[in-house]
Protein: Exodeoxyribonuclease 7 small subunit
Organism: Vescimonas fastidiosa
Amino acid sequence: MKKQSFEENMDRLEEIVSLLEQGDATLGESLTLFTEGSKLLAACQKELETARQKVVKLTKGPDGAPVEENFVMEDEE
């Protein structure tokens, strides 16, 4: 089975939210959609965290050479 891209997972998650908000699904269908959505959310959060950990900011060190620093979001400071 082909691994879904982050974008495909997000699209499906948005579709699931829309279906659940409509309220037309039976209880069983709603539970199935909720379960699928929970798995997609976890996969998206894991991928985002992995990407966040890879992001670094290049700055100049004392000798002018690039230095890698951990990237810090403005709202985390």
